[in-house]
Amino acid sequence: QVQLVESGGGLVQPGGSLRLSCAASGTIFSIYTMGWYRQAPGKQRELVATITSRNTTNYVASVKGRFTISRDNAKKTTYLQMNALKPEDTAVYYCWHAGNTWGQGTQVTVSS
Predict the structure, then answer these.
(1) Bridge-partner residues for 82, per DSSP?
(2) Residues sharing a CB contact under 8 Å with residue 24, sequence separation 6 or more, in sequence order
(3) SS3 94
(4) Are 45 and 94 within 8 A, CB to CB?
(5) Residue 34 in contact with residue 21, Cβ under 8 Å?
């Protein structure tokens, strides 16, 4: 059974940075696409970024140039580096595994 554990969320000022981590277990991690989604209060969950087994990445337009998704197959971990954060990035961020598994979510709050 696949399990995903996120970490790295928190409170940051506008313009600041955070790095989220997602540690996976119970899966042959390297062959699966991984991703990050987010859900803000009162809004639907939206895709933020994905990374394939070949390290091909995809981003929602609102985070392009600010966020970077990466993976370390040896550590079975996916990362989301978030720079130049804006208040509208405030949301619960969820790690996603292409076998349709979700993490528990980690809160990111961007506020002065």
Answers:
(1) 18, 67
(2) 2, 3, 4, 34, 76, 77, 78, 97
(3) strand
(4) yes
(5) no
Cα Rg of the chain, angstroms: 13
Please provide the size of the chain in residues: 112
The token pair that represents 89 in the structure block: 């990035």
pLDDT tens per residue, the chain (112 residues)? 889 999 999 999 999 999 999 999 888 888 899 999 999 999 999 999 999 999 999 999 999 999 999 999 999 999 999 999 999 999 999 999 998 899 999 999 999 9
29 half-sphere exposure, CB direction, 13 A CA radius = 18
What residues form DSSP beta bridges with 22?
A: 6, 78
Residue 45, C-beta contacts closer than 8 angstroms, at least 6 positions apart:
37, 38, 39, 94
- Token representation of residue 30: 């390297």
CA distance 50 to 56: 8
